[in-house]
């Protein structure tokens, strides 16, 4: 599974970048593109949640109870 992910990441790095206008040419490229975009968004959300928690801690506000 890790080999497939690494291959997908490699293909994506070669074919797509934020400044690239390259369009996916087949279903595999489209799938790779979509999965990578979802992973990137997930990472951004995680970073945002961590930043908010840090700011709340600095302000002395307790987080929501779970």
Automatic annotation (TrEMBL):
A Pfam entry, by short name: HSBP1
Gene Ontology MF annotations: transcription corepressor activity
GO BP: cellular heat acclimation
Domain of life, source organism: Eukaryota
Listed Polar residues bias regions: 13-23
Region (Disordered) residue spans: 1-23
Alphabetical list of InterPro entries matching this protein: HS1-bd
Gene Ontology cellular component terms for the protein in this record: cytosol; nucleus
Protein family per UniProt: Belongs to the HSBP1 family.
Protein name as catalogued: Heat shock factor-binding protein 1
Source species of the chain: Glossina pallidipes (Tsetse fly)
């Amino acid at each position: 599974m890790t080999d497939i992910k690494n291959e997908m990441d490699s293909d994506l790095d070669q074919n797509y970048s934020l400044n690239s206008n390259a369009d996916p040419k087949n279903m595999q490229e489209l799938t790779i593109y979509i999965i990578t975009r979802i992973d990137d968004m997930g990472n951004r959300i995680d970073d945002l949640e961590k930043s908010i928690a840090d700011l709340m801690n600095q302000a002395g506000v307790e987080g929501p109870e779970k």
